[in-house]
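Repro:
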Amino acid sequence: MASNVPKEATGRLAKINGEPGFVGYVSGKPFSAITIEVRGGRIQGIYIVTNPQKLARLPNLPAAPI
């Protein structure tokens, strides 16, 4: 089965709006954000954002240290 994930895709764990999350990057720019709402040690919601206008608020992927 062929994968549709670009070779230049990467991701990082992040805190987004105070919740644990994950930011996916393509070519160093935010492509998607996933947050997990946790209450009482239980997952209450999973939110996925791919809207480029909303993702524009996130910083680009920092360059790796040399």
